Amino acid sequence: MKNNTKIQLGLNGPLVSKLGLGCMRMSSIWGGPTPDEAESIATIREALDRGINFLNTGDFYGAGHNEMLVGKSIKGRRDDAFISVKFGAIFHNGQWLGMDLRPIAIKNFINFSLTRLGIETIDLYQPSRMDNSVPVEDIIGTVADLVKEGKVRHIGVSEITAEQLRKANSIHPISALEIGYSLAERQIENELLPTAKELGIATVAFANTAEGLLTGDMKAPLPENDYRNHFSRFKGENLINNLEKVEVLKQLASNKGYTPTQIAIAWVKEQGEHIMPLVSMSRRSRLPENIAAMDIEFTQEEMTTLNTTFAIGAILGGTYLQR
Ligand SMILES: NC(=O)c1ccc[n+]([C@@H]2O[C@H](COP(=O)([O-])OP(=O)(O)OC[C@H]3O[C@@H](n4cnc5c(N)ncnc54)[C@H](OP(=O)(O)O)[C@@H]3O)[C@@H](O)[C@H]2O)c1
């Protein structure tokens, strides 16, 4: 990573790597098999060696498995890593049941996370969604208490509205907004992204490949047992339309000598100094390709092609990111 190697989280906040490592897919999320643990740990360690220090996990990823995995990976090198943790989502047997962000629950969650990670302070702690039954003041106020206690360094939020973001930031400075953002998912450009920028809040952008759509490897129809069949974006005519757009991405990538995934990641990082691509990588072989994406530059013409082909509304159907 030669260019844009660091990003600042929040006004006067910490500098972390501009490319983040998402650890979610190193655990079983929807009840499927757990990926190769040794390879996952080796991937995290190699990412740290290569200067990717922003690691993203969640206490519900694999019911705590993911935090334990991250904990094992950073053992003996705590200072090399910046640990970002989401909390509050309640799962049972791989099914999402809702959110629990009552102050009493948050104070319980944090201690389990610290133990599983084997650390004393979480660098960035964030509710993974808002909980409509608990006022934003109480949610952020409780995490702010954890900052005072020394259990949390910085506060983040995830998948919230612009209005909620303003509210949260008025209670305690918010360092980062974690949000799904890609060529295929650009609605946040209307309000949320400008709000985060205005408030000096970094955007940690996940799902850069849009559930694999933008890797260029997807073919219609998907295999019957593919979890993406649950999402309208990957069904019937929608998928045919969407893969036509991906053909443009593939052609542009090929002309530049990169992979579609690299272009998809590079497009995200090009959206601003305050935006971090947060990419899932469960194997070491992904690292060189995705790190190289951070050095890609675009001509005006290439940007226009991408922005026009993937204009808001061009990709049909949704995923679990319905806003
Ligand atoms: N806040 C939230 O609501 C939320 C929701 C979802 C995710 N997240 C966070 O964001 C991170 C990223 O999100 P994501 O997993 O949904 O999206 P993603 O980064 O687009 O990853 C999707 C898939 O792309 C694959 N991939 C990575 N590099 C590739 C390459 N060069 N070529 C081909 N395929 C490649 C990964 O495979 P491998 O795993 O096989 O390497 C992964 O399975 C997660 O790990 C998690 O930490 C947050």
CATH-defined architecture:
Alpha-Beta Barrel
Widest beta sheet: strand line-up = 3-4-5-8-9-10-11-12
One letter per element, helices H and strands E, the order comes to EEEHEHEEEHEHEHEHEHHEHH
Our Rg estimate from Cα atoms comes to: 19 Å
CATH class: Alpha Beta
What are the segments in which pLDDT stays under 50 over at least 5 consecutive residues?
Answer: none
Please indicate the percent range of residues in DSSP E strands (runs of 2 or more).
Answer: 15-25%
Number of strands: 12
Contiguous helical run count: 10
Give the terminus-to-terminus CA distance: 33 Å
Structure overview:
The chain has helices at 37-49, 65-74, 103-117, 136-149, 162-171, 192-198, 236-256, 260-269, 286-293, 300-309, and strands at residues 6-8, 15-17, 20-22, 54-58, 82-87, 89-92, 95-99, 122-127, 152-158, 174-180, 202-206, 275-280. It is α/β, with parallel strands linked by helices and 323 residues long. Helix 1 (37-49) crosses helix 2 (65-74), helix 3 (103-117) crosses helix 4 (136-149) and helix 8 crosses helix 9. The chain is globular. The model has no long low-confidence stretch (mean pLDDT 96). The structure holds NADP nicotinamide-adenine-dinucleotide phosphate. The site of NADP nicotinamide-adenine-dinucleotide phosphate has 26 residues, from strand 12 and helix 9. Residues 22-25, 56, 86, 128, 158-159, 178, 206-209, 212, 215, 261, 278-283, 286, 289-290 line the site of NADP nicotinamide-adenine-dinucleotide phosphate (NAP).
